[in-house]
Design a protein that fits this description.
Elements (H helix, E strand, L loop, with lengths): L31 H7 L2 H8 L24 H12 L2 H4 L6 H5 L4 H6 L1
């Protein structure tokens, strides 16, 4: 371990790896030899004892809080707001979107 509590890696190329790179080609099991060549023994044990699920066919990145599955700052902001506040308790009834469609300077929108 390093002074700061992290592990010294055997190979600096490990920073470019993804989980898929540490799985045996064509199989759903860890490539123990590759993992052992890259990481200290404490980390090797942690990795190889992490189960791999047979039912998962392909891995892909998905942002569940957007209908397209793609992260955007807007979708991240909406998630944060929904997590921090109960949105329903702060909503005022009515069609407030029509306010934003009015052709007026932005400072007037914010004032209203």
């Amino acid at each position: 371990m390093t002074k700061g509590g992290g592990f010294l890696l055997k190979n600096q190329g490990v920073y470019n790896l993804i989980v898929y790179d540490m799985i045996s080609v064509g199989e759903k099991r860890w490539d123990i030899d590759k993992i052992a060549s890259l990481f200290p023994i404490e980390v090797v044990h942690t990795i190889i004892y992490t189960p791999l699920f047979i039912l998962v066919q392909d891995s892909c990145l998905v942002w569940a809080d957007d209908q397209n599955g793609i992260y955007s700052v807007r979708s991240g902001y909406k998630l944060m707001i929904n997590e921090l506040f109960y949105v329903d308790q702060f909503q005022v009834e009515g069609d407030w979107n029509c306010l934003w469609r009015v052709n007026t300077p932005h400072k007037n929108h914010n004032l209203l």
